[in-house]
């Protein structure tokens, strides 16, 4: 039985205080795997402890994190109890804290996460609505009061904060938060598809604000990493790859009961696809195959089932596939070289859609997601024009 009480002091550190890496050092360069705390956790071989780690995410995250530690997991671990899913931050109370705590409520909450096995603690920040400047500043001021070093300030912001009208203010606030800060984008449906400049402005955010991270996302995690994010997190399932405003129900397939079916990452297309849609695409064609350790050359059509074993296997496939990209990314120098690698990889995936649609004989079978198109075509640094479609395909203008 795990001790459910909050300790009256922080847990003892395994090393002397000065030997422990800072929170930023511990998390730098990692793309974390965000486990859904709804399920019993397991130590996954698909999660590379060198370049990744786990963010236990959801209502029972603290309990599940402790269970994961008990199961023998020794890698980097964070706990995101997702306060923003039920609580809207206010200027007076930006954090969701227990009502019965008279003082030091935040400290207790942070200690509790450490006690449950987290390597650093996440602030229980509520959802920050669109244009709620006073609330955003209240989070910033509350962060200024935090003296301990084992903290990541969570910014669960409405996607509207990323639009051209508000991004400058958001960056200014982030710059004044001295701790690592983890941005979580909140919107019904895919936040990356909210408006045209989302991908571009996210790059601005992670490159201009120091020690910014992007949590609870999909492949946007990798785009953030190559453009300067401290760390990032990719959700195990679609409900953990984005978040909806506090108190709202996700208006996704989940409400119609589809969410039980896995979403599978298709390596060549660099996109997630629901297994029911995938079954449709492959109805009259050979399914795409995968060489990751869990698939071992088998087809990607085999995950079309809502049972737990299939879910786990599909999640491991996903983690192996993007984990290999994170490994590849780490072999390139941060900066231009890394951005170029990512841009070229996205461009190759974009080109692959046409080939795959011809192969399965469905002209509009697979459509590239808008963010992938943006990652493949946006200039990789300001002032550098994106290559033209022809240049990317290696076609000279004369030959075209
Ligand atoms: Zn696979």
Key structural traits:
400 residues, alpha/beta, TIM Barrel, 8-stranded parallel sheet, two-stranded antiparallel ribbon, 10 strands, 12% strand, globular, disordered N terminus, binds zinc ion
Describe the structure.
The protein is of the alpha/beta class. It folds into 2 domains: 17-254, TIM Barrel (Alpha-Beta Barrel); 261-377, no CATH class. 33% of the residues lie in helices and 12% in strands. The protein is built from 12 helices and 10 strands. An 8-stranded parallel beta sheet has the order 3-2-1-8-7-6-5-4. Strands 9-10 form a two-stranded antiparallel sheet. Helix 4 (133-144) runs parallel beside helix 5 (167-176), helix 5 runs parallel beside helix 6 and helix 10 crosses helix 11. Zinc ion binds at residues 290, 292, 294-295, 317, 320-321.
Task: Note poorly predicted spans.
Answer: 1-15, 383-392, 394-400
Count of alpha/pi helices: 12
- Specify the oligomeric state: single chain
Give the ordered list of helices and strands: HEEHEHEHEHEHEHEEEHHHHH
What is the structural class? alpha/beta
Q: Within the largest sheet, what's the order of strands? A: 3-2-1-8-7-6-5-4
Count of distinct structural domains: 2
Regarding CATH, which class of the largest domain?
A: Alpha Beta
Q: Kindly state the percentage of residues in helix.
A: 25-40%
Computed CA radius of gyration, to the nearest angstrom: 21 Å
The percentage of residues in β strands lies in 5-15%
Main sheet specs: 8 strands, parallel
What global shape is seen?
Answer: globular
| Total DSSP E strands | 10
CATH topology of the largest domain: TIM Barrel
